[in-house]
Predict the structure.
Amino acid sequence: MPDSPAPSAWTAAHVAAIATDAAHEIPVITAADVIPVLPGVDLWDLWPVQLVDGSTADFDGWTLWNILSAPLLPDPDARHDIARILLVMQKGDEWRNCGPLMPDGHAPGSREWAGSTLYDPATGKLSLFFTASGRRGEAQRSFEQRLFKTNGTLHIANGLACVEHWDTPVEIIIADDVHYMRVGGTEGIPGFIKGFRDPAHFRDPHDGQDYIAFTGSLKHASSDWNGVIGIARAKGPGHDRWAILPPLVSADGVNNELERPLLIQRDGLYYLFWSTQRKVFAAHGPAGPTGLYGMVASSVLGPYEPLNGTGLVAACPDAEPFQCYSWWVDAQLQCWGFTDLWGLKGQPVADDPAFRRQHFGGTPAPVFTLELDGKAAHIKAR
């Protein structure tokens, strides 16, 4: 199988052409929408436990979710420094906290960041692909990011799920320092660190080949804004050996972070989605809104072209430009994000922990659904 072609470029011209309308604008989040599903806990990036074909696993009507979490802190921005992955059950409006997905000390990082999760009903095995940020026991917090896989056995008893008998995490994909920067360092703030994270599994229904899409940063870049979407291909069965390939998409000179990328196949086309924020676009170029973006191709390895001609699929509204973020698009094209800074009503975001605490939702956002039509995508009308 040939390797990827040259990365498909997401350019300043694409971004400059963005114009939002009702079909591409997420409705304003109101107080009625901001309901803590787990009181006392901040929740953000979330993803469902899936079957290998990308569909969401069903457990007698319940869905299992992995969600980044932290106890409520005076400054919600500090949550990234202590993030743990929770295992949560959901049916309709009911959410049950099953506790940390992995036991204390199991993950090789100092924090657990986002990924994806597969379940095998035949064996009960759950496979977690995740980002280990930093190193366990490090004296000073770092932003090193490594991609790991670990397996456990899933049980559901007394109305709660748990995973036991975890095996040793295996580092599955290593930044090659050719196409992708190796990420380290102790300085950084959310939105402005470099990336090698967010592994998302995808099985190509065309030939059964397995891939991992991930967030990366271009090694030989022309700009400090050098976000890319990377890809790796499985080398045989087992999901433990992967060949890293050149990036699928490059935003060099345009955007620093193409976060939480994922692949979906529909009607013979491959849709690549990611999330990004207005603040991480290049300082002296055009900036798009915080939102869900995407590209489409006829092959999993591309070349890709921006959906809707610009890449924008669903934007936070101008009235509340920071209200939600970090969407997972499931097999039914439902978009699951979290409520970020909401209820600003035109106020600028103050650099003040108390202000952030007052306006941070920290809970799943209202779900919206996409409609895809070839090279076009929009929010399905309610």
User: Anything to note?
Assistant: Residues 8-379 form a domain with the Tachylectin-2; Chain A fold (CATH 2.115.10.20). The chain has one domain: 8-379.
